[in-house]
């Protein structure tokens, strides 16, 4: 699994099926992330209905090829509003997380999809099935915020 920036080795077998989110170790929690980059897309939220639409306009720090944050450890210096997702905060964030997000899936009791790196053994599987944002995002500094609605994407 050398291509995987997340260390998913040595974890309890199928912990995502048996351990509740709040009881996972920090490494298990981190290993749930599929690396899709979708949570780093800008969203539009309807003030009246509360509906959330994802756009392909990405946070300025997202690397559109690796689908990773370019400055993750110090990201709040540049993007103070970036959230820290934990088992304690997922309830307040689940409504806007992408449908495919592993944290949201487990929180909703849907389990992991068969393309998840924990099941395939490779971080490439999220890109191969087209769930990741690789290759189709636009940096937010290239699009006026008033035009984001022209870039709404269909969720899978
Ligand atoms: S949407 Fe979820 S699974 Fe995908 S990168 Fe974000 S936290 Fe990880
Ligand atoms: S700061 Fe980094 S982790 Fe946060 S939304 Fe932007 S790219 Fe994603």
TrEMBL record:
InterPro entries with a match to the protein in the record: Puta_zinc/iron-chelating_dom, UCP006173
Pfam families recorded: CxxCxxCC
Coiled coil: none
Family affiliation: Belongs to the UPF0260 family.
Name assigned to this protein: UPF0260 protein SAMN04515673_10640
């Amino acid at each position: 699994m050398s291509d995987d920036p997340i260390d998913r080795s040595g974890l309890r077998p199928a912990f995502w099926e048996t351990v509740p989110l709040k009881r996972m170790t920090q490494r298990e929690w981190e290993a749930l992330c599929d690396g899709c980059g979708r949570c780093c897309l800008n969203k539009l939220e309807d003030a009246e209905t509360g509906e959330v639409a994802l756009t392909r306009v990405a946070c300025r720090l997202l690397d559109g090829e690796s689908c990773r944050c370019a400055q993750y450890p110090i990201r709040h210096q540049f993007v103070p509003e970036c959230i820290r997702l934990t088992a304690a905060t997922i309830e307040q964030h689940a409504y806007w997380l992408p449908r495919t997000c592993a944290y949201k899936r487990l929180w909703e009791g849907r389990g992991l999809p068969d393309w998840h790196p924990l099941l395939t053994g490779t971080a490439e599987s999220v890109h191969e099935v087209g769930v990741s944002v690789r290759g189709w995002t636009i940096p937010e500094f290239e699009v006026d915020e008033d035009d984001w609605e022209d870039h709404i994407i269909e969720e899978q």
